[in-house]
Design goal:
The structure holds two protein chains of two kinds. By secondary structure, chain A is α/β, with parallel strands linked by helices. Chain A has two domains: 6-246, Rossmann fold (3-Layer(aba) Sandwich); 264-374, Immunoglobulin-like (Sandwich). Helix content of chain A is 26%, strand content 34%. In chain A, the strands form four sheets. Chain A has a six-stranded mixed beta sheet, with helices on both faces. Chain A is globular and about 90 Å long. The two termini of chain A are 55 Å apart. By secondary structure, chain B is mostly helical. Chain B has one domain (2-257). Helix content of chain B is 73%, strand content 0%. Chain B has helices at residues 2-21, 30-49, 63-85, 87-90, 92-97, 103-130, 142-166, 170-183, 199-204, 206-218, 226-250, 254-257. In chain B, helix 2 (30-49) crosses helix 3 (63-85) and helix 6 (103-130) runs antiparallel to helix 7. Chain B is globular, with a radius of gyration of 19 Å. The chains are: A alpha/beta, B mainly alpha. Chain A binds chain B through residues 17, 23, 26-27, 30, 71, 74-78, 90, 92, 94-95, 98-99, 101, 103-104, 108, 111-112, 115-118, 120-121, 144, and chain B through 3-4, 7-8, 11-12, 14-15, 18-19, 22-23, 93-100, 166-168, 252-253, 255-256.
């Protein structure tokens, strides 16, 4: 699939909205030509490509620009700058059922909605029974839409989308369709659609869906691309980011700064192996610290904590037979972990500069979201422990 | 592509027509009641109370018949323009969420207004037939009248619909302008009652040409002289060109503004 040309390619896409305080400001600006608006950059320099038969998930917090991006792809709104190329037919469900007329019956709405999504009259005649069957609305199909429950409206909306069969399908937060049974049915359908060569763009807060359909994920943050890559790497990072945010929101972010007058302080903590890991990879950390008096001796301690402050592991130089370090005013010490046993989540690092006794703390450095660990399957727990299973002979 | 547009236009018009009468007891019958109601009120006011009569130079001496000929195109234009003004803003959910040619929203309401006119026209022809006043000789003139009327309505409708997205006061202003236009057009009074010095104003009014054309068409007349129709032809062409231009120019920003 990698060498097939992209069906969707987006290059340097930006979108700026003009926000006016009052409607009159817009009129005045048009007449006097003096700017009276505030520019809001909803999207900035977004680029990506999606090959045929693949799914791209779009994640990000509210207001990150996901909907704006999908709206541009769907052709509802135009980008301010940048280019966008889509091969073949595109259908978008930006909101299931938004196009329905409440006074018309389900059946009457099917015709208009399917026509708007690009279905020809003769195709519609063939597919109407399939839409009716998929929606499972039974006799309600000839009742006005206004009598439907939200779940019924969404079922009908999705049923129509299933029969339009575009080459590119854009879905925005539309997957929370009805009950569990119907959701499963929709998922089965989407799976089949992608397997048959359909290209899918999904924006959803339900990361489960994105993991299920999308090989790649785009993470938007404040209108910019925060990450773009394999879903199994991006989604865990995004999840970790969200978890960390909840933590910060709850407890308040605390960064411990060294007092300027302290006799010894940590100058720098560097993660030589980067910030993203997979299970079993090595981690190397370098700590540079300085002191006023070369005769002072120091130990170091490093702690790995989960965002919710569950202590996961600790590394103490005075317990490992290393150090104490002395004889200079500037030291660089490296911590090497050959195999990281962590399986998922984001972790924070605590680095302590300790006195020779290993008790008194000279300086502390906390690295929020320092390590994020990606996973393929959804594992339980924090760490993986080497083990084996053995079936014993039946004694009876 | 064009075929699909027509399919879509048909569905939009149907949505408009059905949606409007859905849930009302008389439903579709309102299409018949409304023009009759206007006709009854105007006839009472102008013919019975104020004693206006079509007078010399007109093809009928019956005020109601005279009035209805002018009222037919007027009601279709008024309905078309007023509903076109809010056609895009009323369908905000569609415009924001779906990619489709939004000019169809304007075409659909104009087409729906035209269907109402066709119903009223059919009723009118039946009444003329029953009262022995039917003259079919001029009906071919509608082949000129209707396209000119549609061009004028759609052109003004496009401009109003697009501007109303950005400037919602358009709908209010339009209502007032249309009210003035109605009284400045010889619909409820014959041109012969207007003092001479005001004739130039009424003669450059494109609707004067339109109602004249309708009267000739429905009362067995002939093609009016070119100078009567010139303002109508020029206005229809200009409105269509300018309206389409404004609509196309502003359309890319619709979804962002609504």
């Amino acid at each position: 699939m990698a060498d097939s040309p992209p069906v969707v390619s987006v290059d340097n896409l930006s979108k700026t909205y003009r926000v006016y305080a009052r409607p009159a400001d817009r009129l005045l600006e048009a007449l006097v030509r003096r700017p009276r608006h505030i520019a809001f950059n909803a999207l900035q320099n977004v680029s990506f490509a999606v090959p045929r038969g693949e799914g791209l998930g779009v994640v990000g917090e509210n207001g990150a620009g996901k909907s704006t991006l999908l709206k541009i792809l769907a052709g509802v709104t135009a980008p301010t700058s940048g280019t966008l190329r889509l091969e073949g037919s595109v259908a978008s469900i930006l909101e299931l059922g938004s196009a329905f007329h409440p006074e018309l019956t389900g059946r009457q709405n099917i015709v208009l909605n399917a026509a708007m999504l690009g279905l020809e009259r003769k195709d519609l005649e063939e597919r109407l029974p399939l839409i009716l069957e998929f929606s499972e609305l039974g006799k309600f199909i000839d009742q006005p839409i206004k009598t439907y429950s939200t779940g019924m409206v969404m079922r009908l909306g999705f049923a129509i989308a299933t029969q339009v069969e575009p080459e590119v399908l854009i879905i925005d937060e539309a997957l929370s369709v009805g009950d569990g049974y119907f959701q499963k049915k929709c998922m089965t359908h989407l799976k089949g659609y992608v397997e048959a060569g359909g290209t899918l763009l999904i924006c959803s807060h339900a990361l489960y869906y994105i993991s299920a359909f999308c090989g790649n994920t785009l993470w938007l943050r404040d209108g910019r691309v925060e990450a773009l890559g394999p879903t199994r790497q991006v989604v865990p990072r995004y999840e970790a980011f969200l978890d960390a945010k909840v933590e910060r929101g709850g407890k308040g972010r605390e960064i411990v700064e060294a007092a300027a007058s302290a006799p010894a302080r940590i100058d720098e903590v560097r993660l030589l192996t980067g910030s993203t890991y997979r299970f079993g990879q090595p981690l190397e950390l370098e700590v540079t610290f300085s002191c006023d008096d070369p005769s002072m001796a120091f130990h170091l301690a490093v702690g790995i904590n989960r965002p919710d402050e569950v202590e996961v592991a600790s590394f103490l130089s005075h317990r490992s037979g290393a150090g104490p370090w002395s004889g200079r005013t500037r030291h660089t010490v490296r911590l090497e972990i050959p195999e990281l046993p962590l399986v998922k989540n984001t972790f924070k690092l605590y680095v302590f500069l300790l006195a020779e006794d290993g008790l008194h703390i000279h300086d502390t450095r906390i690295l929020e979201d320092a390590i994020s660990v990606e996973y393929d399957e959804y594992p339980f727990g924090i760490v993986a422990i080497p083990h084996r299973w053995r079936a014993l002979k039946d004694e009876s | 592509m064009l075929k699909h547009s027509f399919f879509l236009l048909g569905e939009f018009t149907r949505r408009d027509f059905k949606g409007r009468y859905a849930g009302s007891v008389l439903g579709f019958l309102w299409s018949f009641v409304q023009p009759l109601w206007s006709l009854a009120l105007f006839t009472f006011l102008f013919s019975t109370v104020m004693k206006v009569s079509p007078g010399i130079g007109e093809r009928t001496s019956n005020f109601a018949v005279f009035l209805f000929c002018g009222l037919l195109p007027w009601m279709a234009m008024q309905e078309g323009i007023l509903r076109a003004t809010t056609a895009v803003t009323d369908s905000a959910a569609l415009v924001k969420k779906m990619s489709f040619p939004s000019d169809l929203l304007v075409w659909a309401v104009v087409l729906a207004a035209l269907l109402h006119e066709a119903i009223a026209l059919a009723m009118f022809l039946v009444v003329l037939g029953v009262t022995g006043q039917l003259a079919l000789g001029g009906l071919w003139l509608l082949l000129f009248a209707v396209p000119l009327q549609v061009a004028l309505t759609v052109g003004l409708g496009f401009a109003a619909a697009a501007v109303n997205v950005f400037f919602r006061d358009t709908a209010q202003i339009n209502g007032m302008l249309l009210q003035a236009w109605f009284y400045l057009t010889p619909i409820v009074y014959p041109l012969s009652l207007v003092p001479r010095r005001f004739h130039p104003i009424l003669e450059i009014n494109p609707l004067t040409g339109l109602v004249t054309l309708y009267r000739e068409a429905l009362l067995g007349g002939t093609l009016p002289p070119l100078h009567t129709l010139a303002p109508l032809i020029v206005a229809a062409a200009a409105a269509l060109a300018i309206g389409v231009f404004i609509f196309r120019r502003l359309r890319p920003a619709f979804a962002d503004e609504i």
